[in-house]
Amino acid sequence: MNREQLEHVLRAASQIADDPDVVVIGSQSVLGAIPEDRLPRDTLELDPRVTRRLERWIGMYTSAD
Question: Which domain of life is it from (predicted)?
Answer without folding.
Answer: Bacteria
